[in-house]
Amino acid sequence: MKRVETKLDGVFILEPTVFGDSRGFFMESYNRRAFREVGITLEFVQDNHSLSEAAGIVRGLHYQSEPMAQNKLVRVLAGAIYDVAVDIRPDSPTFGHWVGVVLTEENKRQLFVPKGFAHGFCTLVPNTQVLYKVDQYYSPEHDRGILWNDPDLGIDWPVRNPKLSEKDKNLPLLRELLASNALREVKEA
Description:
Layout: E1 2-5, E2 12-15, E3 18-21, E4 24-27, H1 32-37, E5 46-52, E6 58-64, E7 72-78, E8 80-87, E9 98-104, E10 110-113, E11 117-123, E12 128-134, E13 143-145, H2 166-169, H3 174-179
Antiparallel strand pairs: 1-2, 2-10, 3-4, 5-12, 6-11, 6-13, 7-10, 7-12, 8-9, 8-11
């Protein structure tokens, strides 16, 4: 397992060792010992699996507030996504900065998104399946989000008119969350 840093401290890519031959491939997508060696020492408690039937679907930007904030490890089982993490820690020097990474079934990369970051993705091809591990259970009362196309973030999404859930269409802007003091519960990972 190889750890590849991104421009945001705490957000990194994992590249697994893949063994392939004429039959296909084999890889360890999770190995506690290997994860500890690259700095992931937390305990995952839930796996989430989504299917997006069309290209151009955006899910996010989502996060959970304390005390139910989640670290996430995201990977693609089928298809491809443009995966985005946004720093929403008000006291961070990179507050409001984002990083985008392409995850595909071919490259088998995984993105680690720590607490204190909002997360979202855009499907690049139809029938994309995403699996992500979290270290905290889903909590509806702590479920939060930021509008996917917040102009202050300036995320360079690969789509202009995505398919969105009703919930995601109505998420607030980051500046609204900051003004309402709603980000006071976001802490460093």
